[in-house]
């Protein structure tokens, strides 16, 4: 089976909702044989034909059929594991596949927030995000002593709750966790009350570092240097 690839490159993704790929160029690769289709093939085209540095970071995504860029992006490496999905995508668009090249990996924070169907956007098989780096956009203490937060990275927003024991530590979390602070978190559990809603459950053991830009201070967690 052969199909055509529209390779969207030299651009960037805007933040959702209403995500777009802007300032880019579209290269047509035709034909592409399904049996040869791979990330390495696309990266070879980028370096040999389109002037990309082979040592630069590039992340390849395909867009699922009948989905927007908010909820339809899948890592190419993941999609290729399911050949039937590639066939389905190309048949929907008359043997045409959209592949997007990003210099920055879409954060798992955003991927989890856009999960709609329990498919390839699931954060992981154990319901955890390996790494989150995000800015605190809002933070509000609740009656239990926990803090409800809204976190944002360059590509999206997600809600979460920080456990009250985090603020009892002597690492300065109570003073440094505020609007504008940057959190580096590891192995964070994702609570999913329904398929389209996801929240981070942040505990002491998830904290790697907290950067407080106002006071130019860093609070370090138990996981050590990052």
TrEMBL record:
Q: Which residues form the Homologous recombination OB-fold protein OB-fold domain?
A: 128-213
Molecular function (GO) terms for this protein are: RNA-directed DNA polymerase activity
InterPro entries found in the cross-reference section:
HROB (IPR028045), HROB_OB (IPR058570)
Q: Which domain of life is it from?
A: Eukaryota
- Say if the entry is tagged with keyword Nucleotidyltransferase: yes
Signal sequence extent: none
Per UniProt, what is one Pfam family of this protein?
A: HROB
Keywords assigned by UniProt, alphabetized: Nucleotidyltransferase, RNA-directed DNA polymerase, Transferase
Under the heading PANTHER family, the entry gives: HOMOLOGOUS RECOMBINATION OB-FOLD PROTEIN, UNCHARACTERIZED PROTEIN C17ORF53 HOMOLOG
Protein name per Swiss-Prot or TrEMBL:
Reverse transcriptase domain-containing protein
Q: What is the lineage of its organism?
A: Eukaryota, Viridiplantae, Streptophyta, Embryophyta, Tracheophyta
């Amino acid at each position: 089976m052969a199909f055509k690839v529209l390779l969207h490159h030299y651009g960037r993704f805007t933040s959702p909702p209403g995500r777009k790929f802007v300032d880019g160029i579209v290269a047509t690769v035709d034909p592409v044989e399904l049996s040869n289709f791979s990330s390495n093939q696309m990266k070879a085209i980028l370096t040999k034909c389109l002037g990309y540095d082979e040592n630069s970071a590039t992340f390849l995504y395909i867009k699922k059929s009948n989905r927007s860029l908010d909820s339809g992006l899948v890592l190419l490496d993941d999609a290729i594991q399911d050949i039937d999905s590639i066939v389905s995508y190309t048949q929907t668009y008359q043997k045409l596949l959209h592949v997007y090249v990003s210099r920055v990996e879409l954060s798992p924070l955003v991927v989890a927030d856009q999960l709609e169907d329990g498919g390839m956007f699931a954060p992981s098989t154990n319901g955890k995000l390996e790494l989150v780096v995000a800015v605190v956009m809002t933070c509000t203490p609740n009656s239990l002593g926990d803090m409800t937060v809204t976190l944002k990275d360059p590509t999206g927003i997600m809600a979460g709750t920080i456990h009250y024991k985090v603020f009892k530590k002597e690492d300065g979390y109570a003073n440094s966790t505020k609007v504008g602070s940057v959190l580096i978190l590891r192995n964070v559990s994702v609570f999913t009350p329904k398929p389209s809603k996801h929240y981070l459950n942040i505990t002491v053991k998830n904290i790697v570092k907290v950067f407080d830009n106002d006071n130019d201070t860093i609070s370090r967690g138990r996981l050590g240097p990052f």
